[in-house]
Structures are given as structure tokens and as C-alpha cells.
Amino acid sequence: MAELLDDEEIQSRLPEGWERDGEEITRTFEFDDYLEGVDFAREVGELAEKEFHHPEMIVGYEEVEVRFTSHEEGGITDQDIEMAERVNDEG
Region entry Disordered: which residue ranges (predicted)? Predict the structure, then answer.
């Protein structure tokens, strides 16, 4: 079981473009068209499946919102930060 990060650790380690929203970290990625966003969501889904750490994703017309939290731990852990960094690499 991973340890929760404290507020200071979360703030100092948030990857570029991500922000904290309660017990989650979130970022909205923008795209030129719907299918580009769908492709991105599929890539993130494949990464999440490989790492067995699944975000909540909301696919909109030209954007995809990605949210990470560690449900079992009840908040934000190293794994959430690491996955956000990897998703940035995909976007």
C-alpha cells in the first residue's frame, strides 16, 4: 500500500499543467478535433492498463480531462504523480 503525499509534497511535485482538486490531480488536454482526443484517451488507457493505475477520463469535443487519485489509499500518492508525468509525455 502506497503512502499518501502531504499537501506540500503534492504542490511541489505536481507535473506541468496539472492541478490539485481535493484528493485528485487533474489536467485538461486540448486537441484540434474530437478523434484526436479519443486517440489520446486510448493511449492513456493503454498506459493505465499496463501500470494498473486507472484515471477517470472525460472525453469532450476537443478536450480530454484526466484525473488521478489512489482510491485504496484515499488520496494522492507517488503513483498518481508518476502517472501524470507519463501522461504528459503522451500529450
Answer: 1-21, 72-91
Identity of the residue numbered 3: E
pLDDT in tens, 23-71: 999 999 999 999 999 999 999 999 999 999 999 999 999 999 999 999 9
Q: How many domains does the structure of the chain reveal?
A: 1
Strands (E), the chain: 19-21, 24-30, 56-59, 63-68
Q: Which domain holds residue 59?
A: 7-90
pLDDT at 43: 97
- Tell me, what CATH number does 50's domain have? 3.30.1360.20
